[in-house]
Amino acid sequence: MNRIMRFFLIVNVIFYSSFSLGKQTASSVTNIKITVNDNTCAVTMPSKVYIGDIDYVGMNKHSPFHINVLCPVAKDISITAKAMGISDGEPEWTRLLDGVYMKIYENNDSNNSTIDLTGVTSFCDFSETTKATCELIPIVNREPRSALGEFEKLISFTVSYN
Which domain does 140 fall in, by range? Predict the structure, then answer.
């Protein structure tokens, strides 16, 4: 029987222009909602994901965060992610503000690829294991003359196991 756990990640990002503002500080909180159909496996991830101030133009890698899955017996595990809100048609990029985009890399020994943020294609696929850790790295790209402001992005992660 296939089990599915869904939870949501809200990433709060504050954007500033380094040319027009002085020293700035920012913080964010990640709200995670979990629906458990069967508590056979436990899924954990950090309660906060901090992207930080984006005061540069171009692409920049940010600190990784982890999704951990612990099961009492060996299971096949996979994860999907769906970014809510505005998308520009590319499955790996999600728009945060006009001119500011984010994608997320899966970082593991055999694959360092961008994940699909449409909720269709799985990533961090594990076969017959009791413990799985998925390391994800946010990448933010800010174009010249992008919008400024504070933004939260909701990303829904679904962990499936059977």
Answer: 3-161
pLDDT of residue 31: 60
Q: Is the pTM of this model over 0.85?
A: no
CATH number of residue 86's parent domain: 2.60.40.1090
Q: What is the pLDDT of residue 88?
A: 66
How many separate domains does the chain show?
1
Quick one: three-class SS letters along the chain? CCEEEEEEEEEEEEECCCCCCCCCCCCCCCCCCEEECCCCCEEECCCCCEEEEECCCEEEECCCEEEEEEEEEEEEEEEEEEECCCCCCCCCCEEEECCEEEEEEEECCCCCCECCCECCCCEEEEEEEEEEEEEEEEEEEECCCCCCEEEEEEEEEEEEEC
Q: Which residue ranges in the chain fall short of pLDDT 70?
A: 1-39, 47, 86-89, 109-111
